[in-house]
Amino acid sequence: MSSSQDIVIIGGGHAAAQLCAGLAEAGQGARVHLVCEEASIPYHRPPLSKTFLRSPEEAPQLHRAEAWYAEAGITLHLGDPASAIDRAARTVTLRSGAVLGWERLVLATGTRARRLPALVGLSNVALLRAADEAAQLRSMLSAAQQVTVLGGGFIGLEVAATALGLGKHVTVLESAPRLLSRAVSPALSEHVLATHRAAGMDIRVGAKTGAWRTEGQRLAAIEVDGQALPVDLLMVGIGAVPETALAEAAGLECADGIVVDAYMQTSDEAVLAVGDCTRFPDRRAGQALRLESVQNANDQARTAVATLTGAARPHDAVPWFWSDQGSLRLQMAGLVPAEGTPGANTVRRPGPNAAGFSLLHYVNGMLRCVESVNAPVDHMMSRKLLEAGRSPDPAVAADPAVPLKTHLA
Ligand SMILES: Cc1cc2nc3c(=O)[nH]c(=O)nc-3n(C[C@H](O)[C@H](O)[C@H](O)COP(=O)(O)OP(=O)(O)OC[C@H]3O[C@@H](n4cnc5c(N)ncnc54)[C@H](O)[C@@H]3O)c2cc1C
Q1: EC class of this enzyme (predicted)?
Q2: Cα of 124 to ligand 1 centre, how many Å?
Q3: Which of 22, 260, 275, 398 has fewest C-beta within 10 Å?
Q4: Measured between alpha carbons, how far is residue 157 from residues 239, 324, 328, 370, 404 in Å?
Q5: pLDDT tens across 374-395, in order?
Q6: pLDDT value for 2
């Protein structure tokens, strides 16, 4: 990286924050511009569906204070999204009309919450992606008695569990036959379902939603399995869509995500992309993936920093994820094998107490994924095992008297 290099980062979420930190640490004197659509400097998104909703006083937790960016020589462009990229001229135009030149450009544009067009603009319907939406949802929650969550994925269930903890009557509508079906094993889905139901959540899996009935600007009812379900507050948590519009308009290859190589370079080497918005080649999975997690955003940003600072190395990270839902602390390391994978088997390892356990998923004797429930030490050790490519004997791994770290020695 030459000392005069201009790097423009478009984003302002986890990946962008980690890029800024990595470039500052590398200390090679690049001029860095951070272009953020949101008016805030980068903050942590995970609390928005958890502690933030519970605590009226809680503010978004910043990655770093604003002064840090100035000290690191990073110029902030807040609340001024990038509206166009000119790859030939190597410029980015912002909504304000400002034009920034770059030698390397990094797209860290994340995802946006998937919407249902029929419900946009209704006063008792919420989405959750950014801090302003979380603040709106928090005030809507304080006024609601009954909360309906559309979508039994991570964010929907986290909001549902938070709402239940606030004393609301909560209904979750999931169209798939099980909860979290894209991310966890059927056995874990079953456990999550049973735990939330036991806590008093009304969860309907395989739910068929039909017509929506509005009264003025409010959603009054949804048809569920042929019956009208009255709605007080509806939170729509039906997944996220990668934010690729800028990249597509700039002629970069996209396929449900901005396509990058193992160095986070897009189809134009001068342009990198990181985080939720990317589709990247995963060595362990042997295929291209798009992941939505803090771990993925941070690790891809580290790979991009290495590329930008002349220390390029291929991306190679064990994916991991967590989700806090009421009494459940779910932690996943690796990717769960698809249902029906030949040679797959699972062993259950009891956790440190009755509420905890881990599911170790093997394929042809190789450890592929560990799903932990209220077993944080086993989760940490599982990540290390997967990073080291170790596959403990399933019978021994199932014995809680033998710490998983034994298998790392
Ligand atoms: C409520 C919630 C809870 C979550 N909980 C967890 C959790 O418990 N564990 C976990 O691992 N992950 C969790 N996630 C997912 C995690 O937050 C994301 O994977 C992570 O934020 C991805 O980082 P990113 O930088 O790729 O994208 P983001 O953090 O989404 O940031 C993208 C940023 O780019 C900005 N942007 C988009 N287009 C432009 C443009 N044209 N110009 C300028 N800026 C632009 C967006 O406004 C946004 O600020 C959660 C997400 C949400 C929303």
Answers
A1: oxidoreductase
A2: 24
A3: 398
A4: 12, 9, 11, 21, 30
A5: 999 999 999 999 999 999 999 9
A6: 43
Which tens digit of pLDDT belongs to each residue from 341-354? Answer: 999 999 999 998 89
C-alpha 53/C-alpha 161 separation (Å) is 11
Contact present, 174 and 204 (Cβ < 8 Å): yes
> What residue spans define the domains of the chain?
6-112+240-308, 115-236, 327-408
What pLDDT, on a 0 to 100 scale, did the predictor assign at position 409? Answer: 83
Q: Is 276 in the pocket of ligand 1 (CB under 6 A)?
A: yes
- In the prediction, which pLDDT does 28 show? 82
- Distance in Å, CA 130 to ligand 1 centroid: 8
pLDDT of residue 4: 54
Ligand 1 centre to CA of 344 (Å) is 33
CB neighbour list of residue 203: distance below 8 Å, 6 or more residues apart: 152, 171, 172, 174, 179, 193, 196, 197
Q: What distances in angstroms separate CA 27 from CA 8, 21, 31, 201, one per listed residue?
A: 16, 10, 11, 51
**Is the minimum distance from the CB of 331 to ligand 1 under 6 angstroms?**
no
Write the CA distances from 187 to 180, 192, 198, 336, 382, integer angstroms: 11, 9, 17, 11, 18
Query: Please, what sign has the CA dihedral across residues 20, 24, 30, 31?
Result: positive
Segments of the chain scoring below 50 in pLDDT: 1-3
Smallest CA-to-CA distance from 156 within 170, 144, 177, 145 is with 170
pLDDT at 3: 45
Q: Does domain 115-236 have CATH number 3.30.70.1050?
A: no
Which CATH fold topology does 6-112+240-308 show?
A: FAD/NAD(P)-binding domain (3.50.50)
- How confident is the model at residue 20, as a pLDDT? 97
Give the angle 24-29-34 at the CA atoms, nearest 5°. Answer: 55
Whole-number Å distance, alpha carbon 112 to ligand 1 midpoint, is: 8
Helices 294-308 and 14-26 pack at an angle, to 10 degrees, of 30
- CA-nearest residue for atom 21, ligand 1, is 14
